[in-house]
Amino acid sequence: MKGLELSLIRFQNQVRDFFRRLWPPGMTLRQDHLRWLYAPGIFTFGYALRTTITSLIALGIALWWELGSPQWAALTVWMVAQGTRGKSVAKARWHLFGMVVGTICAVLLVAAFPQAPLMFILLLAIGIGTFCFIGTLLPGPATMTNYRIHGMRASGFTYAIISLDGIADPEHIFMTAMARATYIVLGIVLESTVSSLFQFKLEERAQDRLAANFLTAINGAAQTLASLLSGDTQVLKKARGVFSNITTLSDQIEFAEVEMGSHRGHEGDHARAALARVAMLLSRGLDLAALMQGPCGMPDAAFSATSSKVEAFLKDMASQLEASDDIHPVLARLAALQAACRQSVADSLDEEMGSPGSAPTDPQLVQILSQQRMLNYALGEILDELEQALIQFDASRHPLLHDHFHYRLKTFRDWQQAFTNSLRASVTIFGSGLIWVTTSWSSGLTFMMFVSIVCSLFSTLEKPALATRAFLGGAIIASIVAGILVLWRLAEPTTYEIMAVCLFLPMLAGGLAFAYPALVLGAVSYNLFLPILLGPGNQSRLDEVAFFNTAMPLVLGLWYAMWSFRLVLPFDTNDMRWQMRTGILRGLRYIARARNLPTTLYVVEHNVDRFVRLLTNAENTPDTIIDAYLQGILSAMTIGLNVIRLRAILERHLLPPEAQRAVSDMMGRMAQFSGRYGGHYGRTARSAKFAIFHLQQMAGQADNLGVRLEIDSALTCLYVISYELDHNQKFFDASSPYLDPVMA
């Protein structure tokens, strides 16, 4: 007895220690983590209620039509439904497109290889891999909100479920395909119809959202630039959220365009252009920051007075724009500041060049005046970019008659990533097919179907294993809930109405979880797989064996896919950063020698895309490494923009011959910048300083005003390039492994 008591005491202590590790002493269980369930927001609850009712209606209609697998109609509703009307319609369109493509490909696959299992598996894997390859190359970031990519995901999804269902009965593949297509169309039509009933003043709210997005972006940029003018020259390199916010808001514009409907004009194009100009505005701020930290860092009284006025204007600009629809008072203040910058430049030139026949100006004074003009010129460029952003914003708020403006989405294709995503998906699916063939598992086709679904959905992501792990958690919860419903509650109902009552609360909980950011992927998995695990039908009811033969392949399929994603071409953040840095250096060489120059907007947007990608994949990387790479990306963007401007100056042929030659030599070095073996970094940095020295010598000798201004413009670009090269040497020298010990 004493031994038994000691064992019980030991067990109690172990249980107590376990719970202490979960909740240390003094720590209370936070109930707000369940707030999404017991106290959701009104819009969240409305979305969950609307989608639950729609999915139950789709299920009821499919049962009424006596379709063979009615659960696919309810599943489609959950797959298409989103929080806003614009997202739902955009996703529904691309899902419908993907369904058509996937259905045609599935029919062709089963018809071609009805009795050749290995060829069937191989072509299934290659087909889904091809969809992933195309999806990775489509415009926009590879996120779950990019519905162009979702079109390819839907193609792979449909391709898998139809072909794997049809290969068991290839003679009726056409009927199988039409049945699956009917479920999907039914779900899409119902979701679109029901969601349209709950929209009020949709166009007005879409217009307001466009305006609010721009005001959010411009306010962040304005406050950042105001801090720069107040003396914080490092603020632009600390402002991570400003650049990320621009990309996120730009990605949402197409949904507002959908909500504005057929009566919209080019408001979305102007909004995209306005946000792009905000990014350009920040890039001009980087130029000014480099000049303020370089030789031009001691501003004179004129620049200090102008910059103080600009700082005050930037701080309250967003509130003025929000308070009134009339943008002209803001543009009038901006024009006055632009005039002040131009006047400062004119006064400086007048002081330097003097009157005809006057004594030559002291060379040291010439250099000081030139540097002050550079500061005023850079500040003026910031104001010019701000003016363009405000004009585009006003055009998005007040549509113009007979407007033909178009601003297309930029595409930054990564062919290596597309090939990696494609190969990873193909290998994973082919491996699952080999498991089915070699084991003759009776549920092998179901196992393959779930693996194919996961590969279609997540192989276009950079971290598919992480997404699949969250999906696996949601599938386990769905299996538990479905097990309770199938083995207990749904054994009794004999009518659809009672069954719908039993399903209402479990589905509603899934809809509420979807709106909680930490549970999004798990909620998507739960909502998708719950109808499949329930398997409702008119003439049948799932028993224990049928349920476990569906739940077990589901959990095993997701577990297998998760480990396959970890083992087959796994994502490596160190390698991603190394490849990004190599691409940046290659891009700088291209800009210096390319016949067809990219636009400055393209360079800015490409580097902002890199910026956001780096932040998205930061994971557990130390902040010092992330900050160093972010600084390197911004520095490379600044150098690239100034190289483009220098090439434009060279093409105008206004510089004196010696100055033209010095800048051309510098461009020749930049065309080999940090190339093979990294031997050209030092030469490029020295050639930039050499060009600065020569242009400074010639600055005081130019009598022509146009030539003098051209020399100032070239010196501004060279000063910025030289500063960035000096302060980011390790990033730009390709012979250095930089900060990643894995690459050392």
TrEMBL record:
Subcellular location: Cell membrane
Keywords: Cell membrane, Membrane, Transmembrane, Transmembrane helix, Transport
Pfam family, one: FUSC
Positions of transmembrane segments: 37-65, 94-113, 120-138, 434-459, 471-491, 498-526, 546-569
Superkingdom as given in the UniProt entry: Bacteria
Key word Membrane present: yes
Bilayer topology term: Multi-pass membrane protein
Coiled coil: none
Entry-linked InterPro entries: PHBA_efflux_AaeB/fusaric-R
PANTHER family, per database record: MULTIDRUG RESISTANCE PROTEIN MDTO, P-HYDROXYBENZOIC ACID EFFLUX PUMP SUBUNIT-RELATED
Protein name: FUSC family protein
Native organism: Komagataeibacter oboediens
